């Protein structure tokens, strides 16, 4: 089975070397043994090692936008079978759909979501709240990387240059010009969410390397990788990943999740109990993450956020949110709107 976190780490090292970073020092600072990283039989780097790798690469390259520039330069083929699936998709829309569906194979720091409307489509990057809290500097580099890579991964594969209508993410005013260049977007809004909106014309743009027969073979391979990946995870992790990946559908009932996993509701409850967690605790955690995400986005009224998260009464959502954060949804949104102003940074 391909280890995509190893593959991404190796590509990061290769890019850092091109930026005149000393490979031995970078590995030493990260606690990474290059021979182990190259070995298929060795375990993946730990979360601490990956965090240290991003931070050391940023420092040693003297590039505060290391992640952004790495994402701009990386070729889609660097992602192995997943990259080939994207490269041989029929259209941009299909490629992005595949990228979103299998993003968890590449990283556990975020999930990717694509939402369509009549005139545009939006690519959303929903981050892990744990990573954001525990290592904000590394988190910024990773988010910059995935936004830039998602935009540039089809460079040379289509006859148009993809240019987002708008982009929203945390950005320093002094670095805005470089983000505008890399993301090809003159309408960047400083925000705590991460998303890019593109004109609907790009959705059906044909990919030059499209190959339906090869794509079918690659899709089977990637699906097998996904199944193998899933089987290595605990049941609670699998449910958590499913809930995040299908967040736009709302929070399903226990019976619905059990049916999706082909087990009985009673069996699901018993297995979760063995892992020391309940389905209610999992859904509460997801609801909290999604509530913060939607309120920070500022695109939905509080009542609609409550409905999306499965609360029949706004008062029930208010009580739950106060239990999670100590404040109400309305107060939280006002506080966040005041904290994230143009030119401000959530990292300062």
UniProtKB/TrEMBL annotation:
Keywords: DNA-binding, Transcription, Transcription regulation
GO cellular component terms attached to this protein's record: cytosol
GO molecular function: DNA-binding transcription factor activity; transcription cis-regulatory region binding
Superkingdom of the source species: Bacteria
InterPro entries recorded: AraC-type_N (IPR032687), Homeodomain-like_sf (IPR009057), HTH_AraC (IPR018060), Tscrpt_reg_AraC-type_HTH (IPR020449)
HTH araC/xylS-type domain residues: 237-335
Record's protein name: AraC family transcriptional regulator ligand-binding domain-containing protein
Organism: Spirosoma foliorum
